[in-house]
Amino acid sequence: MALEGLSRGIFSALGLLKSKRKLDEAELKDMLRSLRRALQEADFNVRQTKEITERLESRIRDEDLRPGITLQTHAMNILYTELVRILGPAREVRPHQATILMVGLYGNGKTTSTAKLAEWYRKKHGVRVAVIEADVHRPGAYNQLSQLLEDSTVEVYGEPENNNAVDIVRNGLKKHSAADLVIIDTAGRHKLDEELVQELEDIAKVANAEEKFLVIDAQVGQSAGPVAANFHDLAGVTGIVITKLDGTARGGGALSAVAATGAPVMYIGTGERVVDLEKFESDRFISRLLGMGDIRGLIDLAPEDMDEEEAMRITQRMMSGRFTLNDMYAQMEMMSKVGTIDKLLSFLPAGMFGGMGAMGKAQKEAMQGNLDRYQVIMDSMTINEKDEPAKIKAERIRRIARGSGVNEKDVRELIAQWNRSRKMMKGMSGNRKMNKQMKRMMRDSEMELDGFDV
Ligand SMILES: Nc1nc2c(ncn2[C@@H]2O[C@H](COP(=O)(O)OP(=O)(O)O)[C@@H](O)[C@H]2O)c(=O)[nH]1
Ligand SMILES: [Mg+2]
Fold first, then answer.
1. Among 120, 246, 272, 277, which is best to mutate for testing ligand 1, by the most ligand atoms less than 8 A from CB?
2. Is the CB of 219 under 6 A from ligand 1?
3. To which CATH superfamily is domain 300-444 assigned?
4. Is 396 helix (H, G, I), strand (E, B) or coil?
């Protein structure tokens, strides 16, 4: 619950700023109090909460608002940056005589992540990697790891018959002393019990690994904090791997794990296959966590840096009556990115761009799907064809469809879409009032967070 509620909490706190460009003292305090509550409910610890709200307060007080931007957007940008900063920059292990010890609770993805990381470093760094299976409690752990790495040249060490994990680690390290990187997989339990604690301590001593990675399932949510703290006391966690981020979970627990250990999130697991590993990027993670889609897109939209120019360029071309497929694509792309363009859209005739007035989230996603397909199709077209789609006849449609691996129907649909948009443009270009309105819109479009579901 906690993290899922975070975005709601933040939005309602910042909602107090809506359409404002100035705040009085009482309003500012009010907003900070709501925000503090939202952060604490989302498992940020006291120190983090204090840090974030203090930074926000002083930046709101000190910084001048950019023209055309509301206080709400400004505050959102600050918060976003602060959250990203708290999660810290990405880090990689230098695979040179290095050892990584994998720890975590049962079923969180330790064994899978061991294989993923081994392949990652072998491929990306071209070094010699070995893994040691030291989970003696789960029958088949050695087979599981070997199978995951069966197509890889990573060496897998294990002694399926031996139930002394410490011995296995000692033997494995000796055998693979020439490896650049050794990764040790350990046993997990549903809870950290006495026996596991002792075993882990012994393994940690023998392995003397400089890196201890805590593996956390994205679904664990709030309990990640205490779990992480336990493992941290035990082994001194140096990095965190969040798994199963391919599911619906947003991985909010990671924040509390980061808070509890002070260790950065380093990798995320996004599937069951060995290749499903990504380097952690805090900005993308925060966007996802806050349920904002690509917030970077929104921030980029600050009036003075962005799309205003692009929007003007497209508008002018629209007005000039020349409107190519590339123009249509650029226009649709802009629309799908910009939550705030809803305002602009409200000036346009309903039915434009395939019938979107104000776009909902689902519509934007559908639009993105169309864009991806259009892009593929357009890649198979010549410049002339893109400039004058009206001249594309049956035979060329067939060629384009073959070239881009889609149905002819899809190509026809793209051309039909272009035709509809073009007609709209034509209709608009005679409308001077709208022309003026649009230009004004582009100039002082006030960026608000209308696009978000709160
Ligand atoms: N979808 C998905 N499944 C994962 C991911 N990581 C691990 N799993 C699955 O989670 C289950 C438990 O993983 P395992 O590595 O055996 O966990 P361990 O007990 O901590 O060693 C297995 O079915 C894995 O395939 C991930 O990033 N995404
Ligand atoms: Mg395992």
1. 272
2. no
3. Signal recognition particle, SRP54 subunit, M-domain (1.10.260.30)
4. helix
